């Protein structure tokens, strides 16, 4: 992957190429940015720039064969680590090497893909992946060998925040004093979840969301989208190119998030002074509890966005509203007056707390039932 293939982020491209051209390549860097901003794509392009000797220009000099290896992500001195879990093929002690075929397919199809997309790719959408202690052994084994082509070795750790404490402790010494000409590129969407001992050993590069113009231009040039549709999708994508692709290709319909949200808030409205409606909330909680933790976290994030959109509409910031609910008889304009400055902070806190507890393997049915009952009080708060 070349820097020229990456959407936007020109200032980061310039920083990386300039520092590499001057021979200033930090041994450990953390690329931190939101989903769809291009952190993984940038890490791969930077690795290619270093390993293929693309200094002072891409595809210049005698590096065509090296660049060809990167097209298939098969360069012997490029190593990847990513969150995994046991599935029908890998029953126990899963490590990244077990899923390398699927990983190459995944980043070839869409290097802007999300963690949830990856979990679905390897059929663990109902589980939470991690970078476990077995992975640390594989990393040390890979980097103990000499570089095949006599230059640098690059280790890209995608979603480094999924590294558990045992893994981090094993890698600390390696990150602090890596073998000669070894570069670690850690990638994360959750900078705050990176263990401090790891974080402090990295040079940090922050990525912002992509501009609407950059996303629209990419949709037109890469997906043959007409300009008007591209502009509309770019606005809805909110800086996330992966979301733009999902909107364009109507992906993500596996889970009817909008339908679940509408059922939830309608039941919450009915529940005030109506004990029978509590049964609807309990039934709703049981349904959502059965879809798997990653999907639950995705849904709660969708709920946060929906409440945020309602708040913006309530305060007349219509130009910032991009969600367009399609459910019959549910209008964001009618829902918006119930989301205001008096309840929005509490609603966000409860949704965030629910996500936190689900991520840490709490009982989803209890967490969601508790959240639902609290919503019945907050939604009526004037």
Structure commentary:
By secondary structure, the chain is of the alpha/beta class. It contains 17 helices and 5 strands. The chain has a 5-stranded parallel beta sheet, with helices on both faces. Strand 3 (153-158), helix 7 and strand 4 (182-188) form a beta-alpha-beta unit. Helix 12 (257-270) runs antiparallel to helix 13, helix 13 packs across helix 17 and helix 14 packs antiparallel against helix 16. The longest helix has 22 residues, at 293-314. It is globular.
Cα radius of gyration in angstroms: 23 Å
CATH superfamily label of the largest domain? P-loop containing nucleotide triphosphate hydrolases
Mean pLDDT comes to 86
Major sheet details: 5 strands, parallel
CATH architecture of the largest domain: 3-Layer(aba) Sandwich
**In percent terms, what proportion of residues is strand?**
5-15%
Number of helices: 17
In terms of structural class, how would the helical and strand content be classed? alpha/beta
How is the CATH topology of the largest domain named? Answer: Rossmann fold
Q: Please bin the fraction of helical residues.
A: 40-55%
Order of helices and strands: HEHHEHHHEHEHEHHHHHHHHH
- In what order do the strands lie side by side in the largest sheet? 2-3-4-1-5
Distance between the termini: 53 Å
Précis, in short:
This protein has helices at 10-21, 39-51, 64-71, 100-109, 115-121, 133-144, 165-176, 196-199, 212-223, 227-237, 241-248, 257-270, 275-289, 293-314, 332-335, 344-359, 364-378; strands at residues 28-32, 78-81, 153-158, 182-188, 203-206.
